[in-house]
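Summary for the steering committee. One of the milestones for this cycle was to obtain a three-dimensional model of the protein with calcium ion bound, which we needed before selecting residues for the alanine scan. The sequence and ligand used are listed below.
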Amino acid sequence: AYHLSFFLLLVVGVCWAQYSPNALSGRTSIVHLFEWRWADIALECERYLAPNGFGGVQISPPNENVIVTDPWQPWWERYQPVSYKLCTRSGNETEFRDMVTRCNNVGVHIYVDAVINHMCGAHAGAGSHATCGSYFSAKTEDFPAVPYSGWDFNDDKCKSRSGDIENYHDISQVRDCRLVSLLDLALEKDYVRSKVAEYMNHLIDIGVAGFRIDAAKHMWPGDLKAVLDKLNDLNTKWFSAGTKPFIYQEVIDLGGEPIKGSDYFGNGRVTEFKYGAKLGTVIRKWNGEKMAYLKNWGEGWGFVPSDRALVFVDNHDNQRGHGAGGASILTFWDARLYKMAVGFMLAHPYGFTRVMSSFRWPRNFVNGRDVNDWVGPPSNADGSVRPVTINADTTCGNDWVCEHRWRQIKNMVIFRNVVDGQPFSNWWDNGSNQVAFGRGSKGFIVFNNDDWDLNISLQTGLPAGTYCDVISGEKEGNTCTGEQVYVSGDGIARFHVSNNAEDPFVAIHVNAKL
Ligand code: QV4
Ligand code: CA
């Protein structure tokens, strides 16, 4: 009986691994360095992400993509694969390997955005206008650099009139037809599954820790599982033997469609898009929503189970009106509310958290739509992406927003690490938009999103002492650069948060205690 239970434990332990982010212990978030160059990511791992406890980086698709010229080099050209060669505007294979090695060496792991449902758009023409110069022909579905040919696409399996997905209530169309005309791979074929697995195993061999599965909703869960079952365990140079890649699948499920996030639980975690959409509505106080309702945030709001969720406030699509979430999504453009939303996400125990790090683009709303939603990363006249420069005040230059470097956000990434494993506790609210909660005996946070002052004594659950508020400042040596909070012997502290404060929320934790 003993041996059997041990064996079962082993099996459960191993097959559970793909839900585990494979971050170093005590590192509880990843950052999406959207469109960053590999050389800049390597530097950021060493100089900023490791020292501040980030667990990893989600990178933009590293495989060769179409070069789109109309509009000029849009960010979304990287979601139109031409081959699985590791060369893009972010860098070549040498630079990719250097990034993975240097980041892993400082305990910051790499998560690859894997675009494996499709190749380029059906109208992307022919030739070698691709980031590695490979020849391809969209019209004849010829991708010799993989190789893929017409046999490897879903054409005859799709039953829609146009060949594109026309109806999201027809689950076969969603999987077997073209997403916005992108040539749809026949993932029921072992040949295609093997080519995709070969690409992902090449990345695993280099040292990556896991994958964002792009457009997962558009692949049959079983086909995706067949690909994942071909994947190797992670490279033992940085990971213990038998570690499986972390898998989180992009499945946009806001409800109302037959395809659900839970259809994909067998493969790994899923992106919970309801999270950012709802949190944006609450923090904006739309539709009568108020922060007091966040008392049962998480599964209580109909989200997937916490250990199946990858959560975020905004992502690269919905921060610019693509994908899902609509107008309620908060982004760096709404800085004050955005910091509150990210602060709340990082303090709350639900889900595995991803912080967005964006580039600035010239938004231009015409009839309520941003006609510049396509604009690609900051680049030079020759099309090369501009490096990330760091200013004296630690912000980024060259139009890189670097939200992950904003003091309030960076400090909340650290807060999440400090309180890891601690229960959601000591909830208080004023029935409106003033709320507070703790994480066991390690951390406590207070929000004032009402139009009047918050002035109240609360049970924090923390040990007595003087704490630095890590939102208005931080602990430097033995002083606080911002506000201080005094917790008395019974765990009670007085909080005064003006509704006119630059950031109307306060966060304290035991590693920011004088
Ligand atoms: C358009 C028309 C087509 C037409 C075609 C003719 O929509 O009907 O046939 O022109 O050429 C770009 C253009 C889009 C164009 C398409 C093909 O924006 O107008 O089709 O190319 O030429 C990103 C962008 C898309 C972009 C795509 C490919 O968001 O705008 O399309 O890259 O370049 C659903 C999915 C979800 C998806 C989300 C956006 O369920 O999985 O839509 N999200 C992921 C990524 C996203 C990416 C893709 C999927 C595709 O997060 O960034 O789309 O890989 O909700
Ligand atoms: Ca598909």
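Key point for the committee: The longest strand covers residues 109-114.
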